[in-house]
């Protein structure tokens, strides 16, 4: 018997020119992480510097998902941007806390809270490491 997996759904909205609100729904794991990575890379390519990752509909995330969050965090920092996780489910929050990702990547309960954090940081010049 073949078990059907729920596909990953990634919905991107742009509340401001440099901000991508990325709502993810489904399991974020080895099978689905590539789609998530492509969506984030596309937003970076289009000039987004700040990423608000709404994980409220992600019941499970493994190390593949965590690695993508950390990768986009590093890339966003390179262009003076940021990454914020919004409303992770308890299981995802536990993984973020146990691995220390929540120390590096801020976790907010609402989109408004995350936007306030973005606005609280003064603009800086991009980090152009060679």
UniProtKB/TrEMBL annotation:
Q: Which domain of life is it from?
A: Bacteria
Q: Where does the STAS domain lie? A: 17-118
Query: Can you name one GO molecular function term for this protein?
Result: anti-sigma factor antagonist activity
Which InterPro entries does the protein's record reference?
Anti-sigma_ant, STAS_dom, STAS_dom_sf
Q: Which NCBIfam families match?
A: ant_ant_sig
Q: Which family is annotated? A: Belongs to the anti-sigma-factor antagonist family.
Q: What is this protein called?
A: Anti-sigma factor antagonist
| Lineage per the UniProt record | Bacteria, Bacillati, Actinomycetota, Actinomycetes, Kitasatosporales
């Amino acid at each position: 018997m073949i078990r059907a997996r729920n596909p990953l759904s990634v919905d991107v909205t742009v509340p401001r020119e440099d901000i991508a609100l990325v709502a993810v729904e489904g399991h974020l794991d080895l099978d689905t992480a590539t789609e998530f990575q492509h969506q984030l890379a596309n937003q970076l390519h289009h000039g987004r510097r700040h990423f608000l990752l709404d994980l409220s509909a992600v019941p499970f995330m493994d190390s593949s998902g965590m690695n993508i969050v950390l990768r986009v965090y590093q890339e966003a920092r390179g262009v003076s941007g940021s990454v914020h996780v919004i409303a992770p489910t308890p299981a995802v929050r536990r993984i973020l806390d146990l691995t220390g990702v929540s120390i590096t990547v801020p976790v907010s309960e609402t989109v408004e809270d995350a936007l306030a954090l973005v606005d609280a940081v003064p603009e800086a010049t991009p980090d152009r490491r060679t």
